[in-house]
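Shift notes (night). Ran Aminotransferase class V-fold PLP-dependent enzyme while the centrifuge was going.
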Amino acid sequence: MTPEQIRARLEALREGDLPVHGGRTLAYVYDAGLTEVDALAREAVAAFAGSNGLDPTAFPSLLAMENDLVAFARTLVDGPDTMVGTLTSGGTESCLLAVQGARDARPDVAAPSIVVPDTVHAAFHKAGHYFGVRVVVVPTGPDHRADAAAMAAAIDESTVLVVASAPSYAHGVVDPVPAIAAAAAERGVRCHVDACIGGWVLPYAARLGRPVAPWTFAVEDVTSISTDLHKYAYAPKGASLLLHRTPALRRPQYFAHAGWPGYTMLNATMQSTRSGGPIAGAWATVRAIGDAGYLALAERALAATDAIAAGISALDGLALVASPESTLVAAVASGALDVFTVCDEMAARDWFVQPQLSYDGQPPSLHVAISAATDPAAFLAALGSAVDAAREAGPVPVDPGVADLLRTLDPATLGDEEFDLLLAAGGLAGADGGLGLPERMAPVNALLDVAPPALREAVLVAFLDRLARPPAVPFATGT
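Came back to this:
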């Protein structure tokens, strides 16, 4: 293919993606609405894409930029002079490393565990799965915050880490960090605060005079914090920070191996080779926006959040799950209004809102992560129209017999044929076996919602597995 053909094909492929600018994709991407900063960041990514963060002595520029970003973050999280940090590929890697470091700091614990609220991000369950660490889940209270007393009671001799959120992703509220951290410290256990969402918003919210519960290193017993640069620092994708109160707390995170004929491997992250692109993109973004710029962006995003929360509360049939304490809003539907259909109707109006399935007696909800570029008036106009259309359409029916069947299925006993049937029943596969998402996802989500979590996971893994298979002819026209 010629360069012109490749550019045209890339543009054609991108037509099927959600937009990353404009503030209408309210999950996965975060938009400051600053065109010049975005262009500058892309230049930085391109300029350093071939650089390798594996060896900071070979590419000292990357180390200098990473240290600059950690120093900037120190001012936001009340970090002491001893605070250190590592730039990772995203929030999940930051959370994984927090668990891995805590586990490896306690070689005396044969079967380590971590204590988390049920609202903790799934990344911590992924860490437990990867690293052989048992995850002890503590139910949250009716306010959706971690129950500090119950978490303290769950700490035992196997506990190597306790986790709190600032805020939790699903509900957008801040856990009682001081009480949780104090309970962990009393037992000699590390306390990690997952501020991947709030780390670049809550400090500015506090400066704007909004009430913010304590969550930073100003809480004496917090040992580490994760905060994402590619969320509300508005940097290009692939940049998060894992911050430790002291170098000694970070040291178990490192991996080194000299017992082979090659070079001595030394890594601070899960990755060995790390492109310098995301590091440079994040550095350029933070330097371009600066402290005053972030204060203004946070004020705009928080004002939009307030307006959207108030607008949702005023809509008949929708109610807030919790009063938002950052930039995340979740809402549930009542009566004949179906939340999954509302999500579909919003998509038809060029707004992507994220459906969240029911959990442990809690109903399904719609979820939005609001950026500085989000227009609250336009969002609420679309939402009002979507609610009217969804109410007229009525809830998505699920055959009671099908629901009962799904509740009895054991995914461990199902083979490819059974999964193919489930995918077809859910509208994720056609009669010809072809896969793809239907135009409307409400019927799919309604079926998934009545299935137990283990079956949801298995069906979606089967779907992803079938999607991620190569074409018969590589680079064929139209692929």
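The mean pLDDT is 94. The two ends are 13 Å apart (CA to CA).
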